[in-house]
Amino acid sequence: MGTRRDFLKLTGLAGTSAMVPSVFSGIKKTTKPIVLSTWDHGVTANKVSWDILSKNGTALDAVEQGVRKVESNPKGTTVGIGGSPDRDGFVTLDACIMNHKNECGSVAFLQNIEHPISVARKVMEETQHVMLVGEGASQFAQEQGFKSKDLLTEESKKAWEKWLETSEYEPVVNIENHDTIASIALDAQGNLAGACTTSGMAYKMHGRVGDSPIIGAGLFVDNEVGAACGTGLGEAIIRTAGSTIIVEMMRNGISPQDACKAAVERIIEKHDDLTNVQVGYLAINKNGEYGGYSVYDGFTYAIRSDEENEYLSSEFKISQ
Ligand code: SD4
User: Fold this and answer.
1) Where are the domains positioned within the chain?
2) How far is the CA of 307 from the centre of ligand 1 (A)?
C-alpha cells in the first residue's frame, strides 16, 4: 500500500514539461480560495483558475476557465482538441459542471466542439435540463454560438491509424501523467464548484460514454459539505457512484483524504479483476481540507491556494 504523498513546489516551474513530483505526507489543509485539479495539466488549469480566484472571482468561473485552457491544447491526447478518437475515428467529448446551488449541466458524446465544458455550462444556465447528448448537444451548441471544428489532429489521426493495425482495446490510464481534467474549487466567498472534461478512453466503442459527464460519478458538489471528482476507468467510477459517495462520506465527518481512500477501496472490493482499473479521486471540504487517492500509483494532481502551489503524487492502494 502506498503511504507516500509526493510534492513539488511549483513556484517558477509551472508549465515546464519536466515536472516530477516528490515526497510528502500528512493531513492537508489550506486557506480559501483553493483549486485542485487532476494530472500534470492540472498545473496549467490551476494557473488560470488562480487568476480568477485570487481576484475574488467565483469557483464556477475559475474551474470553467481553467479546464478550457486544457481543452484547447492540441498536444493533449485526452481532452478536447487532439483528444484520441473512438475506434471508428470520431473524437467524442464528455463534460460536466456543477455550482454551489446544486445546479449542473452536462454534455456527452459531443463532437466537433472545442469547449464542451462551456456547452455544459450553457445547458446548466440556459435550459431546464441537466444533460444533452450527441446530435442534440451539437445542435444546442451551435444555437448558442459555438463554432464547429475538426478536433482530430494530424497526430491523433496517425496514432489512431497505428492502433487500427492491431485494434486491440486496452483502456490505459496514466499516460504521461495526463488524462481527464477535473477541477474542484472553493472560492473566497466560501462557495464550491467543479468541472470535468475529457475525450474519454482512447479507441472506445463508438457511442461509449464514461463517468466524466455523469453528475455523481465523475463530479459531485454539495455546498454544505464539499466537492469530489474522479479520473480513470469511467466504468468503475460509475458502478460505484464515486464522487457522490465521497461527498456523502465527508458529510458524515470523514476527511477528504480518507473519503477518497474509502471510495477507492469500494472499487477494489467490487472488482474481481483489477487489471486496468486505475481510478484517481480528489476531494475538498468547506474547511479547506483536501486529499487525493488512487487505486494504483501514478495518479498526480495540482493544488493552488495562497499558501500552496504544488504538484503532488496521490497516495495509492496498489504499487504497480
Ligand atoms: C473516462 N474517466 O472516459 C474518463 C477517462 C479518464 O483518465 O479519466 N482517464 O472513462
Assistant:
1) 22-318
2) 30
**Residues 246-272 as b or e (16 or more Cβ within 10 Å = b):** bbbbbeeebbbbbbbbebbebbeeebe
Q: 281, 292 in Cβ contact below 8 A?
A: yes
C-alpha cell at 267: 472499487
H helical segments located in the chain:
41-53, 59-71, 116-126, 134-143, 154-164, 234-239, 242-251, 256-270
User: Does residue 285 have its Cβ closer than 6 Å to ligand 1?
Assistant: no
Q: For residue 153, what pLDDT is reported?
A: 87
Give every residue of the chain whose pLDDT is below 70, as ranges: 1-27, 173-178
pTM of the model: 0.91
Please tell me if the CB atom of residue 183 comes closer than 6 angstroms to any atom of ligand 1: no
**Does 173 sit in the ligand 1 pocket, CB within 6 Å?**
yes
Q: Could you read off the pLDDT of 91-122 as tens digits, one per residue? A: 999 999 999 999 999 999 999 999 999 999 99
C-alpha grid cell, residue 199: 475525450
Q: Where are the beta strands (DSSP E) in 139-241?
A: 181-186, 192-198, 219-222, 226-232
Active site residues: 180
pLDDT at 3: 36
Q: What is the CA radius of gyration of the chain?
A: 18
Q: How many Å lie between the centroid of ligand 1 and the Cα of residue 232? A: 4
Residue nearest to atom 5 of ligand 1 (CA): 200
pLDDT digits (tens, 9 = 90+) for 44-86: 999 999 999 999 999 999 999 999 999 998 888 788 888 889 9
Fold of domain 22-318? Glutamine Phosphoribosylpyrophosphate, subunit 1, domain 1 (3.60.20)
